[in-house]
């Protein structure tokens, strides 16, 4: 559904990709050149052909050549790197501002009118300035499709990045700084829309997912972190002590109930039963008795938030 990281979707793509390709090209040329040269030398100057080693005096011409050429190449790489980087340092005055809060382990986006979301919504072809606030430890905001990445440093003021989204679509957004156990779950999406749809989205407060600071999805994930679900269950499809949560919502699973195999639909009722009576149904390939009931530890609202989070794990 979302676009991959080779997508080119912002005003900085050209500068970053140009310098990357130039450095890659130069490196690739020297990889081939030096490898071939080495093979030629191995063949030409082996002991059979040259049984007697000869002393070679210095060569001014060669010395100058292999000093000047690398210097020029380095300056070339520097030039394109700088040309791509410099425009990132100053945001246009008319840029729309969004404050990004990073914390262990999610992002929250706050717009100029106070609206808050856990996915970043942006208008197309409008400059955006993201003010980066780290609420606990170091994080880093990385949007590959836009070729932007900036560390989020606790206590650092005027920490920002800016760019102009140029293509409609949904793109990945990651935390790119190891920030603790659940670092790899600290990701979200950027949704770029036409300016007109963005403006009506922005004023539509019915879509405000969090009145205080979190969306139900983020709350659900936080509760699950707190009670330790992720010690045994993953969200990426890999198998630990218990089944992964990835893609289970709305699907059928094979379980054993009272010694009998059957297919059940993963819906609200099934999730509730799995939390409060986890050994009633045992999913195929997993063991009975390893999970204890959370009866009395979670409120109805907690369970609803957890379900909201599980729904997002496709
Ligand atoms: Cu936040 Cu890694």
Automatic annotation (TrEMBL):
This is Cytochrome c oxidase subunit 2. Residues 93-204 form the Cytochrome oxidase subunit II copper A binding domain. Subunits I and II form the functional core of the enzyme complex. Electrons originating in cytochrome c are transferred via heme a and Cu(A) to the binuclear center formed by heme a3 and Cu(B). It catalyses: 4 Fe(II)-[cytochrome c] + O2 + 8 H(+)(in) = 4 Fe(III)-[cytochrome c] + 2 H2O + 4 H(+)(out). Binds a copper A center. The keyword Translocase applies. The chain crosses the membrane at residues 20-43, 64-85. Keywords: Copper, Electron transport, Heme, Iron, Membrane, Metal-binding, Respiratory chain, Translocase, Transmembrane, Transmembrane helix, Transport. The lineage of its organism: Bacteria, Pseudomonadati, Bacteroidota, Bacteroidia, Marinilabiliales. It is found in: Cell membrane; Membrane. Residues 1-92 form the Cytochrome oxidase subunit II transmembrane region profile domain. GO terms for cellular component: plasma membrane. It is a multi-pass membrane protein. Belongs to the cytochrome c oxidase subunit 2 family.
